[in-house]
Design brief:
With about 300 residues, this protein is of the alpha+beta class. The protein has a single domain, classed as Nucleoside Triphosphate Pyrophosphohydrolase (Alpha-Beta Complex). The chain contains nine helices and 15 strands. The strands form two sheets. Strands 2-1-4-3-5-10-11-6-9 form a nine-stranded mixed sheet, sandwiched between helices. Strands 14-13-12-7-8-15 form a six-stranded mixed sheet. α7 crosses α9. The longest helix has 16 residues. The radius of gyration is 19 Å and the shape is globular.
Length: about 300
């Protein structure tokens, strides 16, 4: 048996034994020919993250961007991807939506020196390592990136959805170099965001800013749909500037104001990326809003 060196996505359809997903294939497209969202079942066993088809209403949502490169990649373009990239397969990531007792969620800004999605706002997260459960991986990444140390018994966890992530995020910005399925997990804590903020110790090599968002701010952020044209209409009751915690190279936090318009930036079709909330994060925040509404919480 081939030695497993990292967690990769495996796919099963029509009751066929799971097969390791190819780097250049669309994971979402494996289960639907025309749609960008589908329900699947997922499991992490024996260091394999397996996705399989399921009946509607009985699975977890899996979504890709409307402009996902693997939706439009031609056979010739796929064949031209360097072999060292093709051999990577599809990696598995976990991202944590940490919800405080007063219903705010933590976002972090990736440092500008990171190769993948630099200067972009995302939830804390990263790769799932060998022999880890999704929750354990999420708590480890949360601790490494933010300094927040939470035990599984301190939180209630819920898998919100899956996102097919590609970098660069669209073909107009270059051929794909990274391909992930990101699992978005919601963690509910009994601590307020002020209590959690007091324990923040971000890793400055990875995090350049921290921000707590509430439902009204999230609604403004997700109204800026990536891939669409036109201006974003400001929502009533949302301040034009947002207080964020800047992280110095030494890891010291200081408060500053960030224009709301920055969080409402859309993914550019070409050129350098801009500071924004990632497309996958917007999807996860939409799922979070639906979860709040399902709990009967006014938002």
């Amino acid at each position: 048996m081939e030695k497993v060196t990292k967690i990769l996505v495996h796919l099963s359809k029509n009751n066929v034994a799971p097969q390791c997903a190819r780097f250049a294939q669309s994971i979402t497209g494996h289960f639907t020919e025309t749609l960008d969202e589908v329900e699947v079942k997922c499991s992490l066993e024996n260091n394999r993250f397996t996705l399989c088809e399921c009946e509607k209403g009985r699975g977890i949502p899996l979504k890709r961007a409307t402009f996902c490169p693997f939706k439009y990649l031609s056979v010739a373009e796929a064949a031209a991807i360097p072999l060292d990239v093709q051999s990577r397969g599809v990696d598995v990531g976990v991202a944590i939506l940490l919800q405080s007792a007063n219903q705010k969620v933590l976002l972090t800004r990736r440092t500008s020196s990171l190769r993948i999605f630099p200067n972009v706002w995302v939830p804390p997260g990263g790769h799932v390592e060998l022999d880890e459960r999704l929750l354990d991986a999420g708590l480890r990444e949360l601790r490494e990136e933010t300094g927040l140390k939470l035990d599984p018994g301190d939180v209630s966890a819920q898998l919100l959805g899956l996102w097919e992530s590609v970098f660069p995020p669209m073909l107009s910005r270059g051929m794909p170099q990274r391909h992930h399925v990101v699992t978005y997990m919601l963690l509910n804590t009994s601590l307020t965001h002020q209590q959690l903020q007091a324990s923040l110790r971000p890793e400055p090599a990875e995090v350049s800013g921290c921000l707590w968002v509430d439902a009204s701010l999230v609604k403004a952020i997700v109204s800026a749909v990536d891939g669409e044209e036109g201006s974003v209409t400001p929502l009533e009751g949302v301040a034009p500037t947002i207080s964020v915690s800047e992280v110095s190279p030494e890891g010291v936090l200081s408060e500053s104001d960030l224009p709301l318009s920055v969080l409402c930036n859309r993914a550019p079709n070409s050129g350098e990326d801009v500071e924004r909330v990632s497309t996958g994060t917007k999807y996860a925040l939409e799922l979070w809003l639906k979860n709040l509404e399902g709990q009967g919480t006014r938002c």
